[in-house]
Amino acid sequence: MTNSKVYAELTDWVKRVHLLGTVAELMGWDEQVNLPPGAADQRAAQQAALAGATHAAASDPRLGAWLAALEADGALTPDQRAVVKVARRDYDRATKLPPDFVREKAAQSSRGYHAWARAKAHNDFASYAPVLAQNLEFAKREARYLGWEGREYDYMIDKHDPGMSAGVIAKLFAELKRDLVPLVRAIGASPVKPRGDALQGLPVEGQRTFLREVTERLGFDYQCGRIDVSLHPFCTGTGADVRMTTRFKEHEPLDSLFSSIHETGHGLYEQGLAKEHLGTALGIHAGMAVHESQSRLWENQVARSRGFWRCFEPRLREVFPAQTAKVSSDELYLAINTVAPTLIRVDADEVTYNLHIILRFELEQRLFSGQLAVTDLPAAWKAAAQELLGLTPPNDREGVLQDVHWSDGAFGYFPSYCLGNMMAAQLWYRALALRPTLEEDFARGDFRWLLGWLRENIHLQGRRYDMLELTRRVTGEDLSPKHLIRYLRERYGVLYRV
Amino acid sequence: MTNSKVYAELTDWVKRVHLLGTVAELMGWDEQVNLPPGAADQRAAQQAALAGATHAAASDPRLGAWLAALEADGALTPDQRAVVKVARRDYDRATKLPPDFVREKAAQSSRGYHAWARAKAHNDFASYAPVLAQNLEFAKREARYLGWEGREYDYMIDKHDPGMSAGVIAKLFAELKRDLVPLVRAIGASPVKPRGDALQGLPVEGQRTFLREVTERLGFDYQCGRIDVSLHPFCTGTGADVRMTTRFKEHEPLDSLFSSIHETGHGLYEQGLAKEHLGTALGIHAGMAVHESQSRLWENQVARSRGFWRCFEPRLREVFPAQTAKVSSDELYLAINTVAPTLIRVDADEVTYNLHIILRFELEQRLFSGQLAVTDLPAAWKAAAQELLGLTPPNDREGVLQDVHWSDGAFGYFPSYCLGNMMAAQLWYRALALRPTLEEDFARGDFRWLLGWLRENIHLQGRRYDMLELTRRVTGEDLSPKHLIRYLRERYGVLYRV
Question: Cα–Cα distance between B287 and B160 in angstroms, integer?
Fold first, then answer.
């Protein structure tokens, strides 16, 4: 076979393995949206069978042979090299982990989830601690199998964000923390207080209509996607079939609206990938931090802007005339941009959210280095929450037990959220520099320039570049928290007069 | 390995392959219920990737080794022998067909579907004839690969109904036809004419409520299933996750009701399989004819009975007081049991439906024996329709082009529908003999005895016995059309005074 033939075989196979992954995602979506209550075990068995078949395809020896042939070929184009590199990474992950380990880890992950759910319900960290310690051990073993001995936490980070490391993050977060903590304190001390009751009792049908109009206007293509209801909002799927979910609460309409705009950001990224390359490095996302940069940019920089609301406020008032009658424009805008420290990450505003991530990153580092024992986590969490947020959790349920991630071994995932916020702000100022009238576009309901720019510079780049390189290429400078700080100061400094 | 260990390995693997099949079914359901319009190609690619992975699992050489070891073991229980026999059949089908043939046939099947859809839309059989001839050739080649040389049509029948053959069907259908044709003529000549407008303008929400109450009362477990809307009604899934669909038309409320009861019959079968054996011969259905016997029994013998309507008529009038005010009980019951020959199979009543199947069976036999050329099909169809139904299709769209089945090579499938009708009637009289008060149960809204009896005698039997053996075991006699004739005469003879 010529190498162009080999390359065609490789990409064809990689795309097929990726498609099997999208089938698993679809079943996950179905589980949260449609599954009959009695079918949970059957669905778990379906997922296990599919995972086995997918692993067989992902570790097929032919892949190894094609990769070896292509890696020895000096004549590959940069795009081809990117495809081979990512395929190698995935192939190694599929083949270097002993099957017994994979099975044990899957079982452990399922045990972990149930142990966590029980512990959270009963506010009983002690019962969960041994499982968490085992999760940590499994994560370290996985890292070592894949050649990351001594850099186990870096492996966990790289797993979610290729090319990223704890050292880089530590530096970025230290700088962010330095400026963010005083800003949060200042906002807390501000006499400006948003009305908590600005929007109450908005019927679900109206919310649905408004939300659909907004997300469609932002550019989400409902010919190639849909939105449904689930307990927790999420976005899944890729290419021509991207599915978002939301939930509706009559007294918290901003929750469904902003979470849907957030998921729309994820969805626009997946809909914007190069269709002909779906599944290879040229047609998959660049990692979780870049994904979050897209969801955060649309949710925060765009949808909390004055321009955005100049466009949509009249329509909101039209759909809900009675409920909005007693709210002024300024009160509405302030309610949309409420900042107040909270103990719970998922309830946090966009300013304090970053402190929640810094807290988790610091604890994860100490867990992996051995400086912190699992049994000492609750106390360490409380101390950190007091230091960073000025709040001490009254119990572990509102502290160390609040998040699901660690229960199935997803260490190293949290930093993606904050890195995404940084990248979003940095992209935002670059976009503004290129198109200073951006907010005027928004006021006219026109989001096409921004989406077009992201399509070309982020979405269609796929996984050619890691997050740091991609940021550099698009914005002309290294990733830095200074843009996020500037953005938060500009937006909230004015609003809260600090 | 001991043979009990080997047996455990075999069943575990067989169940996994079956689960992969249920994933494909779920994607098929999703395609008809949820798929965004732009995602058709992506879904086709997902199904192809999954089919490849499933075929790899189904043809795994370990299966062959386990089967050989177990087939040489004289100490297997009857249940174990049934499991091994069905696993062997599936393994042979997965391994004896050359991969190139499977791929070509899949492509041909897709081409066939589109050629048929186009031909039907333009009433242009000539453009479809070459594709249909190729389909016939592919079917024959498949039969020969699997060792059915000279009995190709028997293979196609056995594929859908294990153990059944064209010879057996020909005998059964000849007897049925002899008695059915005069009955249809007599009903046609009857002065009794149902009101075509008995139920008009029933709002969809009310239909949904009524239909849900009826299907739930029949025993469909909505904890382990659901009902949605699609263009064509169908039922898919198994065990704890069975999904039916329907469609609502305000002026044809009986269409959605009866098609849903039909699908409920399929659903009750799948929900009634032995959960711990799902996927092996002990926990899969016995073939399409037995499946149809279940759907038809609930749709016709049960839901067109006087007892059933004594229970549900008051509720129907409660949900739709205005629309039912001008319809008497007798008019309603006659409308439910309308008989009138039609050119279109899917619109046919339960009496004339069988003639549609006999027509197709006779043509399929002649196609496979070479007595009839594909190009002569339209004329042969018209002649047969005139002979059997007393109607001549004015065009091929209402004749030979009406059904999708042949377009993707599903020859030998049609007989299942009529065999199912026969078996349903035979089961019905056996049930009545055991429980003469059955219709009084129905009048009280109690369907538990019948369901319990079917569960024990049909559903929980899985694929241990073929259709003929199963019928013999449950009813004490060979499958015969005389019960269907008796049933049709009893029900329609009285109604139409013939």
Answer: 6
DSSP category for residue B459: G
**Does B135-498 carry CATH code 1.10.8.60?**
no
Cβ neighbours of B19 in A, within 8 Å: 45-46, 48-50
Rounded distance between C-alpha atoms, residue B344 and residue B332, angstroms? 24
Contacts for B350 with CB less than 8 Å, ≥ 6 apart:
B296, B299, B300, B304, B339, B421, B488
Question: pLDDT band for position A2 (50/70/90)?
Answer: confident
Model pLDDT, residue B229: 95
**What pLDDT was estimated at residue B103?**
83
| Residue A410 CA from chain centroid, whole number | 13
Q: Tokens standing for A467?
A: 């997050």
Contacts of A16 in chain B (CB under 8 A): 49, 52
Name the minimum distance, in Å, from the CA of A474 to any CA of chain B: 30
A244 strand-pairing partners: A227, A235
Question: Please, what is the end-to-end C-alpha distance for chain A in angstroms?
Answer: 67
For A92, counting Cβ atoms within 10 Å of its Cβ (0-12 exposed, 13-18 middle, 19+ buried), the class is middle
With contact defined as beta carbons under 8 Å apart, do A257 and A292 qualify?
Answer: no
What are A375-424's pLDDT values in tens digits? 999 999 999 999 999 999 999 999 999 999 999 899 999 999 999 999 99
Give how far B257 is from chain A: nearest CA, Å: 22
- Closest CB to B27: pick one of A23, A222, A239: A23
At residue A110, the pLDDT reads 80
Nearest to B373 by CA among B383, B359, B363: B363
**CB of A192 within 8 Å of any CB in chain B?**
no
Backbone phi, psi, residue A241, to 5°: -140, 85
B229 beta partners: B246
Class (C level, CATH) for A149-498:
mainly alpha
- Residue of B263, B299, B350, B364 marked active site: B263
Q: Closest by alpha carbon to A488, among A434, A430, A416, A424?
A: A424
Q: Residue B111: what pLDDT? A: 85
- Domain parsing of chain B, residue ranges: 3-96, 135-498
User: What are the chain A neighbours of B225 within 8 Å (beta carbons)?
Assistant: 36
pLDDT along chain B (498 residues), means of 10: 91 97 96 94 92 95 97 95 97 92 85 92 97 96 96 98 97 98 94 90 96 98 97 95 96 94 98 98 98 98 97 97 95 94 94 97 98 98 96 97 94 98 98 98 98 98 98 98 98 94
Q: What pLDDT, on the 0 to 100 scale, is given for residue A197?
A: 86
Alpha helical stretches, state H, A390-447: 415-434, 438-443
- Give the long-range contacts of residues A207-211, CB within 8 A, separation 24 or more: A207/A248, A207/A253, A207/A256, A207/A257, A208/A248, A209/A319, A210/A257, A210/A312, A210/A315, A210/A316, A210/A319, A210/A320, A211/A246, A211/A256, A211/A257, A211/A260
Mean pLDDT in chain A? 96
Is some CB atom of chain B closer than 8 A to the CB atom of A216? no
Residue B170: per-residue pLDDT? 98
Alpha-carbon distance values, B276 to A25, A47, B200, B290, B464 (Å): 26, 17, 46, 21, 15
Q: What are phi and psi of B238, to 5 degrees?
A: -155, 165
Report whether B142 contacts B135 (CB < 8 A).
no
With CB atoms and an 8 Å threshold, state whether B240 touches A52. no
Contacts of A32 in chain B (CB under 8 A): none
Please say whether the beta carbons of A377 and A362 come within 8 A: no
What percent of chain A shows pLDDT beyond 90? 94
Q: What is the CA angle B18-B21-B23, rounded to 5? A: 120
Spatial CA neighbour of B245 closest among B348, B34, B349, B236? B236
Burial label for A163, CB within 10 Å (0-12, 13-18, 19+), is middle
Strand ranges in A239-298 using DSSP code E only, listed in sequence order: 241-246
